[in-house]
Specification:
globular
Length: 363
């Protein structure tokens, strides 16, 4: 089964891609900050790989769609079996509780890392241009929704993804209702809107582009696609060469044609997801390492930019060689995330938000 453990292993792979992508993406400053293994047409191999690793975002979105479908279906069944109803009020509560859970983790990172900007020469007052609205937008994870495209006045450039995930969680009951009636049509429609300008959708953090992998994840969840894969395909001698060939093909098209565009990332991620499920999850030690890393992927996503690009950039890139830089950042981020979880436990931070969400549920 593609269960929580499988999800965390896939998240572990995705967060490693995320760190590599951000460390070595193609800017002149970055390319001069490390010693490449080799160059291809004067471009470091690490940078070429980082272009492909941008698909990490689509992997996270796919897993969100997959998990939310399971969670929401269970929620509806539980209410129905318990004699309750699942009217508009209950569906809104579900969405609000999920958004609050996202924000609770985000706010914990925010209140720790943002004030450090005063120490490391990134004062929030300067970033927000002394504008309270900019602060509120960033604090509530809405930096990806500015109406004019791009990301401005945010303490962390990767927080645009919070806007996307909050949007998908908030409107999931509606997305679910449409998908349940027209699953295949939903996939076709979300692929169609990527290439056709539609003004009925709000300008929210690439929602047009990432609805496709989100709905694909829902489809895999609804129809148990992973469980339906024949056992014989799971034999290493069959699936490994095929999956590696598919990854090489998607790698070629991503780095040569699509590059920074994300239109078809929802398709490009499928060989990686299947490789994770059929092969990597069965490799001893590696599967446990990735699962553990995946459990911390949310934290790492939220604060890694502060580490590698803002507060400790000189330290991270001081190791010069790409593999060492990558390993150091991964270990540092993992260690910080473990520490953050311990602080949450000691301060009973999660208990506080559990009380808040329970109060909201009673309204």
């Amino acid at each position: 089964m593609f269960d929580k453990r499988q999800t965390n292993i896939a998240k572990g792979i995705a967060v490693l891609m995320l760190l590599w992508h951000h460390l070595f993406f193609e800017t002149l400053e970055v390319m001069n900050s490390f010693t490449p293994v080799f160059k291809y047409h004067d471009v470091p191999a690490e940078t070429v790989i980082s272009v492909f690793f941008k698909i990490c975002v689509a992997i996270f979105v796919f897993l969100s769609g997959f998990g939310l479908y399971k969670s929401y279906t269970s929620y509806l069944n539980k209410n129905s079996m318990g004699g309750g109803n699942t009217g508009i009020k209950e569906k809104v509560k579900y969405a609000v509780n999920h958004v609050l859970h996202l924000l609770s983790n985000f706010w914990f990172i925010y209140i720790i890392f943002v004030p450090l900007g005063f120490i490391f020469n990134y004062p929030p007052t300067t970033i927000y241009e002394n504008n309270f609205w900019y602060f509120l937008r960033d604090f509530f994870g809405m930096s990806g929704w500015n109406g004019g495209g791009g990301i401005i006045q945010t303490m962390n450039s990767s927080w645009w993804f919070m806007t996307l995930i909050i949007f998908l969680n908030m409107f999931f009951p509606l997305i679910f209702k449409i998908f349940e009636k027209f699953p295949e049509i939903s996939i076709v429609f979300t692929l169609f809107i990527i290439f056709v300008p539609l003004y009925i959708l709000p300008d929210v953090a690439c929602v047009k582009e990432y609805l496709f992998p989100f709905v694909i994840g829902m489809y895999f969840s609804k129809f148990d696609v992973f469980e339906r894969i024949p056992k014989r395909i799971q034999l290493y001698r069959i699936c490994i060469p095929v999956l590696l060939l598919l990854i090489l093909i998607t790698f070629y098209y991503k780095v040569t044609i699509f590059k920074v565009s994300v239109e078809l990332d929802g398709m490009f991620i499928l060989p990686v997801i299947l490789l994770s499920f059929l092969v990597i999850s069965n490799i001893p030690v590696l599967n446990n390492v990735l699962e553990n890393l995946g459990k911390h992927s949310g934290n790492i996503y939220m604060f890694h930019v502060f580490i590698y690009d803002m507060y400790f950039k000189t330290f991270i890139y001081s190791f010069k060689y790409s593999i060492i830089i990558f390993v150091v950042l991964t270990v540092v981020c993992y260690g910080i995330s473990v520490l953050l979880e311990l602080i949450k436990k000691w301060t009973r931070y999660d208990k506080l938000f559990e009380i808040i969400t329970n109060k909201i549920a009673q309204v």
